């Protein structure tokens, strides 16, 4: 009897060792396989992390995860499935007003603005994706607008910045318009990754759609106060001033005093927006391409 009990114990130990060995083998076989890097990066937040000053993912919240743009209040804000998690869903009355803007945004010298948008053609005016206001300037400091084009397949877009050519001399109302031969094609009805950059050192502007840099004419890409062949100087670094508040989905005039009342053509953004980022540098072509692919891959 004792012999049989001893054999049984040995068998139990052997069986336990066998199953443990099998489990270890299964764990090794089924262990997660690391994602392949894209552009040298594992995830979107690994791209220029020291230059990322604001990030809005809109995953059920209006908060900036970098805490550079804070104290936000949303009006008629809702969310919908986005390119990565949830997305901000605009409407004819929706916008988000932020009351505090950190120096990391105010003192931008160069910039990259990156976002995903999904929208349809509209009429009646211009829709504002976002704006960094200025108290004493009708056009604010920085914004991106989508002009109403009606039921067309092209998007007329305007970007706007403040710059200094010489110290303390602000150049207001400098528009970069994608119109005429530079209208943006195939932008409606689907998610599009939109990135624009401005390098304050080289006075160079670039626009990327779905990770690809557009071939822009020199009149758009190189920013001069006037014809450089006639002595015109480059705009140089950004020069935001009198910054007060920040708005997503509307114009500064939608914030009320001291910005006045909105004109009838000033429209709220009615589309979807996701993964809105601001960098304090002009991202490289490789960084923009990687950002597009990684966010599209939900990383």
Automatic annotation (TrEMBL):
Domain of life the protein comes from: Bacteria
Signal peptide stretch: 1-16
Keywords of this entry: Signal
Pfam families given in the database record: Laminin_G_3
Name listed for the protein in its UniProt record: LamG domain-containing protein
Species of the source: Flavobacterium cupriresistens
